[in-house]
Amino acid sequence: MPQLVNEKARIVSNEQVGPRLHVMVLESPQIARDIKPGQFVHMKVPGAESHVLRRPFSIYARDAAAGIVEILYQEVGSLTSFMPGIGEGFAELIGPVGNAWAGPALYAEGACSHALIVGGGVGAAPLFMLVEQLVSAGCATDVVLGAQTKDALVTCGRYEALLGREPIVATDDGTYGYAGFCTVPVAERLRDGSTADGAPYDYVAVCGPEPLMKIVAGQAAEAGVKCQVSMEKRMACGIGACLSCVVDTVSGKKRSCVDGPVFDASEVVW
Amino acid sequence: MVAKPRETSVKLAVDLGGLAMKNPVTVASGTFAAGREYADFVDVASLGAVTTKGVSLNGWEGNASPRIAETPSGMLNSIGLQNPGVEHLKEHELPWLRTVGATTIVNVSGHSFGEYVDVIESLEGTGLVDAYEINISCPNVDAGGMTIGTDPRSVEQVVGMCRAATKLPMIVKLTPNVTDITEIARAAEAAGADALSLINTLLGMAIDARTRRPQLARVVGGLSGPAVKPVALRLVWETSKAVKVPLLGMGGIATGTDAIEFMLAGACAVAVGTANFTNPTATVDVLNGMIDYCEQQGVANINELIGALQC
Fold it and tell me: Residue A82: in which H helix or E strand, if any?
């Protein structure tokens, strides 16, 4: 396994981008240089001493030359609700942790030519670098994004700029795109094939709430398409030592931090 | 960059019941695996010892998820002693610790009295172990663990059986979840323990009011982290007055000052646990903080601090 670092990262900015959604930009040159799509950082949030545990955050974007990484986070608990108040300062990031999405390697081997990428809520963030790599390699890539409401579709613009067209979108409340869960357009796409040429997909990657991943995994399995999911469990050490974040798989319990976070959907016992 | 303790003229070596430690700092079992995961961050051979995660004879799958919950200044865990079994430890982990030159304490767990002995017997004569820590205090298993460590007769029996199985230094790890820890400590000492380690985690629980569900799949789990430090200090202090064997103190240690407090309360050595999760170089940072304290206070030999509390 490549060396992990605990990098002291200057917080460059920390701005709200949607309802309870924020983007934090951090200066973290080593991690920015080395991180692969799918890997994450384990952050010690500054100024929150009563929180003894770090939090895992996926990388939304990185600029290796500038040495910066971006994380997209949602206020869900007391610590993430504290985070928007953080101004200047330093966070500590352990990284890059975990494995990477297999899509780009599969494309290089000729095992993947049509990819369907599905992001639910903030699950859209760890897929962005994957889509960047797939698109730049020349893989026909469709992106489906789901969100509760139009205002929460904060990654949409960036995906549109990357793809040169709008991603396929669903909102739970019907304020934009398909009304309902993004499993509806996923089912359509798996039935009709790639928007590029109608060819069947040979790779699905999904990240989002576990029920969503479970459904998409089932849809992909039914269509006979290889599917990967990114699992996140409550984590303590984030480096494979404590066995807090285990995922049930067909070959026993595996650590989501270092054996994952990316798993073949067929391996996961939901 | 791999953290190492800094140079000092302070004498740091301690003798934990026959285990020679180059300094008083080890890790709490279960927070550090067998050291390898932390090797990117700290020089594990520079620690007084590495205490490995609890090992049983055969593999254990552990408990269902979620296994942890964060609480104010602490955390609950109910991992449930997941481990691949002693043969795996022997073949894949302990040789690595030897290769890097680490002092090794193996934490021994069991479902039954006999299983503790079986684990020790499979490690005897391998030259891979410097001391055993007998875990009779895990709160997260139904058989073995804390069920043994809360009853003085069971403690005497299992510690006596382990004693008969090895001549290596044997540390017995105590649970705080008892009415009178000194009674358990004396039972372990009488049965042949060379040292006692304390505290294991405090049994607790956390609830999600919104969903009306417990936060841990097993409902209850062990509390650790800075939140437990005052309780741990009190138990180390009480135990130090009740027994003659040296103590390995732990419970919420995150800084050098925390560790010094444990030594003043009567500990001969200390273990860093939950702090490893917050800060992967916590072990070396604690040790460097202890060195700072000794230099500032004119302490030439750290053994001077053991039980030096002035009441």
Answer: helix A78-82
